[in-house]
Design brief:
By secondary structure, the protein is an alpha/beta fold. The protein has 17 helices and 18 strands. Bound molecules: xanthosine-5'-monophosphate.
């Protein structure tokens, strides 16, 4: 059986992004990954999150970054040498699924106390600290899940500066600290938890609730208090600082070498390319391959942004015929994905070979991809589809990677994109899959069906934008099914395509909910589609969340 590539690794990726498609290409070809550059860390303040396996660990890192402080998420057992190299000003211990009293439960290494840095343990992180320091932790009489009111017992604690004396917090735990570890004080309690927040010397804190989730009121202030006041971070992790730092790093890494970048039009590759362009100018060549599966006007828009507006060196390849020829008669979703991925690699190789000696390959890899590709959980995750993005290249081409976005979250990429002067519509574009419209046409892909889908997509998008909903939705798109149904128009019978409209809200594409679009909007979309596209006579709205469905239909 052919090997599939896990879907989760690129859940955070954007429009036919460069980032993880490379991984797919290598896995498909059974080749070794391209060597990743080891960039020296800068001397900026860092908060390190030690990950004990919580589903919210990444959220903790994002909350810290929202305080304009750089943050890295690493495994709980990361050795001190690596932590020290990050120039940390404080540590946060995440929650996790284990119980500290279980044999083999993950425990922090002694450096968390010995380094004399401020430490904040959240949920399991708190239990781990308490138990490590000799306090008893047991299964609580009652599991606490959801909202509860936190009462501050210790006025004047810097962790609660600027906060009311009681506020709702969000709990999710079954264990409980039964006594204070030596030297600790109770800083806050809830009805069920006498030790809901504990602290020692304004430097080690344990929080039984989750300040990182939106359901905790004032979570943001708690993070600000910890990272800015208690850890003393400067809060200077801004897009402008990131840009100047990255430009320096790229110059240092690339030297006089040449870089090639597969441009997709999505925000990740756009921001990566623009940053590299700012650093090395004409030593960067972008390749933009039109696979014939893009939305209406998309190739023109990409070219106008990068070639005409940003004056970058872009090689444009219209490979529509090649892709459509390969896809002829293919209706299996996985086969479509594989064919498109392989064809892309082939064409990219051919184009890159015409450019002479190229030393580096730019990728728009994001931090969630980096974390997920090293997380054991994700490695064990079920494989659903062969995701891929534009940019897959085989290792034998001998490129070194340039990955300027490797430590950024998606929202930070957008901020950097805006600071770089990229047009807003490019920066805020909804994700679009690498295999493009081919996985939104059920059954075989033909020019005629592509035109129908493009027309429907155009109507849908313009109505969504007119209703000011574009940015609120993770994605909104049309799917052309292979079902035909009977209708009536005027006095005539019609027999036309069934078209589905899908709109979802999501934080990261791992889960998604179908969007409750206003009925009037749905009516307008449906009316316009059946009136303006003669071959479609019926429109349905997809009301399935993910799971159990996926966002795309194939
Ligand atoms: P699913 O359909 O798996 O999609 O729920 C999750 C997110 O990933 C996007 N997607 C892709 N993105 N290459 C990509 O760059 C792909 O092959 C691919 N397949 C799905 C999808 O649009 C959604 O945002």
């Amino acid at each position: 059986m052919k090997k599939k590539v896990e879907s989760h690794r690129i859940a955070a990726s954007d429009d036919i992004e460069v980032s993880t498609y490379l991984g797919l290409a290598k896995e498909l070809r059974g080749e070794q990954p391209v060597v990743e550059p080891k960039l020296p860390p800068s001397d900026r303040d860092t908060i390190v999150v030690l990950d004990f396996g919580s589903q919210y660990s990444m959220l903790i890192a994002r909350r810290v970054r929202e305080c304009h402080v750089y943050c890295e998420l690493v495994s709980y057992d990361t050795p001190w040498e690596k932590i020290a190299s990050l120039n940390p000003r404080g540590l946060i211990l995440s929650g996790g699924p284990a119980s500290v009293y279980d044999s083999g439960a993950p425990l922090p290494l002694p450096y968390i106390y010995e380094s004399h840095m401020p430490v904040m343990g959240i949920c399991y992180g708190m239990f781990a600290i308490a138990s490590h320091l000799g306090a008893q932790v047991t299964r609580g009489a009652k599991r606490e899940y959801g909202h509860t009111i936190l009462h501050v017992s210790e006025e004047g604690s810097p962790l609660f500066a600027g906060l009311p004396s009681s506020f709702p917090v969000w709990m999710s735990h079954g264990d409980q600290v039964m006594e204070l570890p030596p030297g600790f004080k109770t800083l806050a309690h809830t009805e069920n938890s006498p030790f809901a927040v504990i602290g020692k010397d304004n430097s080690v804190y344990g929080l039984q609730f989750h300040p990182e989730v939106v359901h905790t009121a004032h979570g943001k202030t708690i993070f600000q208090n910890f990272v800015l006041q208690i850890c003393g971070c400067q809060g200077n992790w801004t897009p402008a600082n990131f840009i100047s730092e990255s430009v320096d790093k790229i110059k240092e890494q690339v030297g006089g070498g040449r870089v090639v970048c597969a441009l997709s039009g999505g925000v990740d590759s756009a921001v990566a390319a623009t940053l590299i362009d700012r650093a090395i100018g004409n030593k960067l060549t972008c390749i933009f391959i039109n696979n014939g599966l893009l939305r209406r006007d998309e190739p023109e828009r990409v070219l106008s942004t990068f070639k005409r507006h940003l004056r970058m060196d872009v090689v444009y390849v219209d490979a529509t015929d090649r892709f459509l020829e390969r896809l002829k008669g293919v209706s299996d979703p996985e086969q479509k994905r594989q064919l498109i991925g392989n064809e892309f690699i082939q064409i990219f190789e051919e184009e890159a070979a015409t450019l002479g000696k190229i030393d580096f390959l730019a990728q728009g890899t994001l931090y969630p991809d980096v974390i997920e590709s090293t997380s054991t959980d994700t490695k064990a995750a079920a494989k659903i589809k062969s995701h891929h993005n534009v940019g897959g290249l085989p290792a034998k081409m001998n490129f070194t990677l340039v990955e300027p976005l490797r430590y950024l979250f998606k929202d930070e990429v957008r901020q950097v994109g805006l600071a770089l002067g990229l047009p807003e519509d490019r920066v805020w574009r909804q994700p679009f899959p690498g295999p493009g419209l081919a996985i939104r046409i059920i059954g075989d892909v033909t020019r005629e069906k592509l035109e129908i889908l493009r027309a429907a997509d155009w109507i849908l998008m313009s109505e969504i934008k007119k209703a000011n909903l574009y940015r609120q939705l993770w994605q909104s798109f049309a799917v052309l099914t292979d079902v035909k149904s009977v209708g009536v128009m005027g006095d005539y019978r019609t027999y036309g395509y069934l078209l589905a409209v899908r709109a979802v809200t999501s934080e990261d594409a791992m889960t998604a909910d179908w969007a409750r679009l206003p009925h009037d909007l749905l009516a307008t979309i449906s009316d316009r589609i059946v009136n303006e596209i003669p071959s479609v006579n019926r429109v349905v709205y997809d009301i399935t969340s993910k799971p159990p469905a996926t966002i795309e239909w194939e």
